[in-house]
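Good morning,

Attaching, inline, the backbone tokens for the sequence recovery test we're adding to the shared suite. The designed sequence is right after.
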């Protein structure tokens, strides 16, 4: 059922992630609403996983901004540097009046770049300070009234909560389930140690609390307490992925990035893991960025879908709308590749080939992401935009 909440939890603006000359992600923008499952699809190497890893700050982004709960958690500086370089080139041939305006613009870009660097570096510290202030505001009036043993117990709890608050990190509210359930688990650690690690890093020292959370989350993902003492090699692929899910969920995140969590599993196990994620989504009120190849799985699981090609977002709309009215030629190509267990259909199925050189003419105008009808965005130039609107009857 589509998400009815309009609160934007994550906003990605003009995200660029370059590795030297390779543009893995190039000017990608989208938002994810609270409680929504946002599917990200495309062929291998199109930048889906890099987008997820950039959001969770496994990479320092090259350019653009990422906002979580309205606060900037990641910012790149390349766009500011490029703009400053361009303005300085213009300055060489500018008149005195134009030069003054150009210098003002350069200073403005430098200020924006400085703010971006500050937010990138200090967002976690600012969040920890905010949590510490909340703890202080909660305990101060209680400590002022308490006496004797009650005051002693309260001070002990206050010290403990303050220590945990100072170790909080904003980004831990986003957790990731990795694609390979074997490579993502440390073979030298037991399941208990793997799941508890995040809690320990966050400052949790009470073993009873850790035990309770670890055993509870194991049962939540369909495993049992006895599994806690075993090592990853003792489990099947599906069970290992459940451990990966448990490791993410135990941190009580608001959002999970599921990076192709079922692609390495058998079909029957895929269904179990997808159903588990769907149940957890409703039980815990999770927001999910679901990265996958299998469009059938994405259609079943996602509220909205973004299609990526060569680092660009080429189409973005609701799941039903994408399958009913695909507009971009690449999206049509992807949909035509979906096999169905129907011999008659398979005999007649026409595989659409996508060749960007023949499908588009961008010699005069570069494409941008445009809204064709409300909520349906496609990367196109003006001529294509008008054609897509005609197709949609606008």
């Amino acid at each position: 059922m589509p998400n009815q909440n309009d609160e934007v939890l994550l906003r990605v603006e003009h995200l660029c992630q370059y590795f030297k000359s390779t543009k893995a992600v190039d000017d990608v923008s989208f938002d994810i609403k609270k409680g929504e499952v946002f599917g990200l699809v495309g062929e291998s190497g199109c930048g889906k996983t890099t987008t997820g890893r950039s959001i969770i700050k496994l990479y320092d982004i090259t350019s653009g901004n990422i906002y979580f709960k309205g606060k900037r958690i990641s910012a790149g500086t390349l766009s500011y540097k490029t703009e400053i370089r361009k303005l300085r080139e213009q300055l060489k041939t500018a008149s005195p009046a134009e030069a003054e305006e150009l210098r003002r613009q350069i200073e403005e870009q430098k200020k924006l770049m400085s703010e971006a660097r500050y937010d990138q570096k200090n967002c976690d510290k600012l969040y920890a300070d905010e949590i510490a202030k909340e703890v202080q505001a909660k305990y101060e009036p209680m400590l002022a009234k308490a006496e004797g043993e009650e005051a002693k117990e309260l001070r002990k709890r206050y010290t403990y909560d303050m220590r945990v608050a100072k170790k909080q990190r904003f980004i831990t509210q986003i957790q990731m389930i990795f694609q390979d359930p074997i490579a993502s688990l440390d073979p030298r650690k037991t399941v208990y140690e793997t799941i508890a690690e995040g809690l320990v890093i966050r400052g949790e020292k009470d073993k009873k609390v850790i035990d309770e959370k670890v055993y509870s989350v194991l049962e939540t993902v369909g495993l049992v307490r006895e599994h806690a003492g075993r090592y990853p090699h003792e489990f099947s692929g599906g069970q290992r992925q459940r451990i990966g899910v448990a490791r993410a969920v135990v941190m009580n995140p608001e959002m999970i990035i599921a990076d192709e969590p079922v692609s390495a599993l058998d079909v029957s196990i895929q269904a179990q893991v997808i159903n588990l994620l769907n149940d957890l989504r409703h039980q815990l009120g999770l927001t999910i960025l679901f990265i996958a190849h299998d469009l059938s799985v994405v259609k079943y699981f996602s509220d909205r879908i973004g299609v990526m090609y060569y680092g660009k977002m080429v189409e973005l709309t609701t799941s039903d709308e994408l399958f009913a009215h695909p507009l971009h030629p690449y999206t049509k190509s992807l949909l035509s590749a979906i096999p169905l267990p129907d011999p008659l259909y398979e005999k007649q199925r026409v595989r659409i080939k996508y060749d960007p050189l023949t499908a588009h003419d961008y010699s005069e105008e570069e494409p941008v992401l445009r809204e064709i009808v409300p909520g349906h965005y496609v990367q196109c130039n003006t001529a294509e935009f008008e054609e897509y609107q005609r197709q949609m009857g606008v």
